[in-house]
Design goal:
Blueprint lengths: L2 H14 L18 H24 L1 H5 L3
Length: about 70
């Protein structure tokens, strides 16, 4: 059927595409972040993401009720 033709078309399109190399430059950090600051930041991220999800899952039955 047409599947091999489409497959070869995609393969040739990917092969001919030239992606320029990223021009990245790295420098040392201006301020060092301590392990305590990292722990506080990670805790804040986890709470911000997981607390609302946990609340919804804990109260899922009340959300299902039709009132």
């Amino acid at each position: 059927m047409a599947l091999p033709a489409v497959s070869s078309l995609f393969r040739s399109a990917l092969r001919s595409r030239v992606v320029p190399a990223a021009n990245l430059m790295t420098k040392p950090a201006k301020e060092n972040i301590t392990a305590g600051e990292q722990a506080i930041a990670m805790t804040a991220f986890f709470v911000a993401i997981l607390a609302p999800s946990g609340w919804i899952l804990a109260n899922l039955e009340s959300y299902k009720k039709k009132e």
